[in-house]
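User: Fold both of these, please.

Assistant: Here is the first one.
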Amino acid sequence: MSSDLPKLKRPLRKVVKNFYQALKINTDLSTDLLVLDRGAKGGHGPTLNIGIWNIFKGNGGVKFFRDFTSIVHSCDLWLLQEVLASPHGLRDYVPETFKGIHGASYERMDGLREGVMNLGHLKNLDQKNQVIRFSKSEPLVRTPKVSLVTHHLLGHVEIRVINVHQPLVRGRKRAGRDLREVMEQVQEFDGPTIVAGDFNTFTKRYFHEVCEVMANCGLEYVPVSLDPRKEIQKLDHIFQKGFVAERCSIVKEAKSSDHFALKASLILRS
């Protein structure tokens, strides 16, 4: 492992606090989508710079927002997981010229919604936004996980983006079934597609299970160049079809979560 790779932590105090907030949750939401457009003008293509990051609910506080502000403009599109937001608080995550689409999994005792967010400059086709719930919740606290499907225009080409946050506690075969559930619920689409996020693949066997499902859906894995992460830290991945993957690397500047952010450059196939 590279000596200059930052050490990431998930403080026990923060884990306990989040566990308490999730003891009583509301999954019966009037809408599971929150959208804030602050002037996104679209991407010209054919290159798409994409980032993924499980932000651990922003529990780094000031450090998180310092990290977030320093990296958010480096990508055309971000896929974020564990995003806590209220309708008003969504503005904290969406800079000017960006559009944020938040898919909620549940609402906590404090009124904040936990979920995933697709955030970027690209024009979003709102009518195709879709939140997909995994059928199995996390044990004990029974919190659900979701995936968010959005469609965007990259130049004049429509692309599909699926932001995945898979359950943590489940067997290897269940990990494959969960992912197949998502892919079976999205409508047919032949265009360029990205499936990325936190797959919670904490062993090679879990990773291979996910790769097999993605391969059966026609998606290729985007490898991380000289991946410096320990095996148990390789939870976050990017899969694609219809693009050429130019590079993918760790974002070392983002240190305030227990996940490493990834950034990749994808070029539309002609």
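And the second sequence with its predicted structure:
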Amino acid sequence: MFPFPAAVARPVPRKEVASTPSAMQAVYKEWKQLEDKGVWNRSTVREWSDVCKEARLKGTNAHLGTVFGITVEKNSESPDPADRKYKHRVVFAGDRVRDIDFAAAIFQDLGSAPATMEASKCADAIGCCPGHAAEEADAEQAYTQALYDGEETWIQLPEDQWSPEWHGMRRPVVKLERALYGHPDAGTLWEKHCDAVLQEKGWMPIPNWRSTYWHEECKTMLVVYV
């Protein structure tokens, strides 16, 4: 069907997920990882109406968001089942966020600054020089490594992820504790977190080239891209 490996991530419908053990395992793994990382805290559960009432009394604001899951089958074009793998990702619905008056939420619009194509090509060129090498690594669940410090945000979990005691509540919400994929400010929050960690380890930013670093002791260039 394809003349070359296309690495197609095929969207998987809910019925197929529910009837496929390996897909269900991917769903469970993703939700558990986010819970273990403390992206939200179930002990903070409240009624959204109570959150709004408290915010109005204090003269503050709060955001209400939802999260949802996306399941895909990676390498779906391969005829060998061993090459195919189900992947589930839980994301924040950044286009459907409301404030305490149920108006569309306004964000900080911080804006991240990813590395440029020139920086990537420069790293490739250095790696091709005699005596040099290039390596590539992935940051595991990168955004969720950063604490969320924006406007107070509460999220609704899908009903199939509710704790038993939540049933009977009208709109249970839990507080967002870490930057989550899909949130408009998640990229910038992680970028700030990553920059602080790298500089602590001796990586110094290259002037006028955002998300690109140099380690003087190791004589190594680093390009960060999400």
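The mean pLDDT is 91.
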